[in-house]
Amino acid sequence: MGFSNRQEADKTVVEIGEARLDASQATPFRDYMFDLINQGQTQLVVDLSQVNFMDSSGLGAIVSVLKQLGDKGAVELASPQKAVNDLFDLTCMDQIFTIHPSVDQALSGKPH
Amino acid sequence: MDVLIVEDARDQRRLLCKVVGKLGYRVHEAEDGLQALQVLAAEPAIRVVISDWMMPNLDGIGLCEAIRSGQFNRYIYFILLTGKADKEAMVEGLSVGADDFLNKPVDYRELEVRLKGGQRVTELEQALDQKNHQLSKALDIVQQDLASAAETQERLLASPATIQNIGFDWHFKPSKILGGDMFGYHAVDDEHVMFYQLDVAGHGIPSALFSFAINNLLMDVDSPSSIVREQTTKAPYIRVLPPDEVVSRLNHRFQTTADNMLYFTMSYGLIHSPSGRVRLCHAGHPPTLWLRPGEGTVHRLESGGVPVGMVPGMNWRTEEFQLRPGDRLFLYSDGLTECENPDGEMFSEQRLCAALQDAGSQPMNTMISQVWSDLCQWRGGESFDDDMTGLVLEYQGE
């Protein structure tokens, strides 16, 4: 449940412990991420492996993280399940985010 | 504050009335429980009752029960007079809802303090009641405003129509009172008709207001500052903007901030009505479905493009294709395909295509209602978690 983070290879890996990133979780997720940014974390990797559904509100929350970071840092996405990947495909999120098949690949710095 | 003294012994009643009156309260009196109920009904200002226990007709316990049964629309603080250290009486009194007790013979200083306690409780209760009243009034206003906003939204929706030689029909159902789905169609010049469908992220009031603003901008075709065409210096003095350019302009105009999380997916198309040539741009929106009733097929027009308002400076792609008379395009919001049945299974694009294929030879309005009844059957009802929009157009040829 909820969100957690750890430092690994100079990046902050944020694990989403929720099965749905939707309207009910969008604001808590955004607030959690904004807190990390305010604490000076600027290289963020979002681990989506436990999320099996994301809607437009969830996507909006991730974009707001990008907006909040501006050019001060980067947010990358890792390990999306099929339904989330379908949403990324439909909305061409690869044009906006770097999306990695796994957290390990995100940390090794090789793009998808 | 008004206080009612209920006591069958005349002298004791008179004495109590005098004392309570001296403390500054307005006093009413009754000889027994039955008379007390009549006085309470006639005097809505009475908030505290001091009642003896043993009385003819209706005793103190019976009176307290009658008051607590809810026949008066206010809280009445009940003080029961008991014999000294009568534990059983206290338990019985509490069990029928007495608030406090006073030992007989009455100590007048104690009476004063207990009455003050009663006053505190009834004043709190009155304040709460007033707050409740204000809240429910405020809620009424909000609900009326929402209902009138929903009417505004309905008025913004284009009516089923034939423009030049293109027929339009639709079905729209917001998930709450207000939705963030919007669509429209309009002639851009004598031989071009535009159509669009969009879905603002999120639900409710912010999304709906945002969709109103975009709709106004898109549908204001004749304005000099129109976002779908521009004026030029040479004949025909109008340039109809290609769909990807319209989307880019919208993206420039509406950028989400870190706080509001508002952006939208959309499909925007333009039909050249003399030829049936279509230019169409998708921005993160579900693929448009192309029905060819002559062949009985449903063709999926690949979507693409990022949603509008996320990131500045993005580019979109316009695709072109040729409609034949009788061909239809079906645009929809993801509420349709993501509509879950009671088992949590989604309706899916596959089922939507099948439903369209089944109903494709029917007139447009029949086709739409048939698809809708399929969806409601899948859902097991008519209440949906997301806004639902289906927009169909038919190229009728020359």
From TrEMBL, chain A:
Pfam families: STAS (PF01740). InterPro entries: Anti-sigma_ant (IPR003658), STAS_dom (IPR002645), STAS_dom_sf (IPR036513). SUPFAM superfamilies: SpoIIaa-like (SSF52091). It comes from the Bacteria. PROSITE patterns: STAS. GO terms for molecular function: anti-sigma factor antagonist activity. Residues 18-110 form the STAS domain. Belongs to the anti-sigma-factor antagonist family. This is Anti-sigma factor antagonist.
TrEMBL record, chain B:
SUPFAM superfamilies: CheY-like, PP2C-like. InterPro entries: Bact_Sigma-Reg, CheY-like_superfamily, PPM-type-like_dom_sf, PPM-type_phosphatase-like_dom, Sig_transdc_resp-reg_receiver. GO terms for molecular function: phosphatase activity. The lineage of its organism: Bacteria, Pseudomonadati, Pseudomonadota, Gammaproteobacteria, Oceanospirillales. Its EC number is 3.1.3.3. Keywords: Hydrolase, Phosphoprotein. One of its GO terms (biological process) is phosphorelay signal transduction system. Residues 2-119 form the Response regulatory domain. The keyword Manganese does not apply. The modification 4-aspartylphosphate is found at D52. This is Phosphoserine phosphatase RsbP. PROSITE patterns: RESPONSE_REGULATORY.
